[in-house]
Design goal:
The chain has about 200 residues and is of the alpha/beta class. It has a domain of about 130 residues: ABC-type transport auxiliary lipoprotein component (Rossmann fold). Helices cover about 35% and strands about 20% of the residues. The protein is built from 5 helices and 6 strands; from the N terminus they run ααββαβααβββ. Helix 2 packs across helix 3. The longest helix is centred in the first third of the chain and has 18 residues. It is a lipid-anchor.
Length: about 200
């Protein structure tokens, strides 16, 4: 019986060996590639809109005034004033703005120069000579003299006999032009006049 048992065991062992293919013939094991980890991105935040700025306020409109028409009648009155010596030298001071707003007083000064350009009474101090005199006094080129005493001091340097001091005052919407003709030697006001500035 032992003989049969050994044979049977041998047969079983052999049959097990035969049913399994040899190791060299086994199909290669398939290796699954490692999957990259799934990165969950946070949901995109909407881009913040730039804040809507407040509208830029419009700059105030500068009044377009007719300076020449405004100064001409006053200049005509001044030229006929008593006590004015023909042939005298006149220092034309720049027009000052004493209104409650912004005015283009440089245009007013320019209009005064035009109005006096062809007069026979005064010889107006040229701009270049005036600029040199301002430097002598230590004033900047765009310094409006501001005070009558500065204007008279400047007039003495340029050997002028008269100073025409002008300013615009009142409400900027309906300003008034005031002019004073002063004698340099004494500071006396020889003539004064005023009038509305026309548009």
């Amino acid at each position: 019986m032992k003989k049969y048992l050994v044979v049977a065991l041998a047969a079983l062992t052999l049959s097990g060996c035969l049913s399994r293919p040899p190791e060299s013939e086994q199909p290669p094991a398939t290796v699954e590639p490692a999957k990259p980890p799934v990165v969950v991105e946070p949901p995109q935040q909407p881009q913040p809109q730039p804040p809507i700025g407040e509208p830029v306020p419009q700059p105030p409109k500068i009044q377009q005034l007719d300076w020449l028409s405004s100064v001409q009648p006053l200049v005509n009155q001044m030229l006929k004033a008593d006590g004015v010596n023909p042939g005298s030298v006149l220092l034309l001071d720049s027009v000052k703005n004493n209104t409650n707003g912004s005015l283009q007083t440089a245009k007013a000064t320019s209009a005064l120069h035009k109005a006096l350009a062809s007069n026979q009474t005064f010889s107006v101090v040229p701009e270049a000579q005036l600029a040199t005199a301002r430097q002598t006094l230590g004033l900047s080129a765009d310094d409006s003299l501001g005070s009558r005493s500065k204007a008279i001091g400047l007039a003495r340097i340029v050997s002028a006999q008269y100073v025409l001091y002008s300013d615009v005052s009142g409400d900027v919407k309906s300003p008034t032009l005031d002019m004073q003709l002063m004698l340099v030697q004494t500071g006396e006001i020889v003539w004064s006049g005023n009038g509305a500035v026309t548009r």
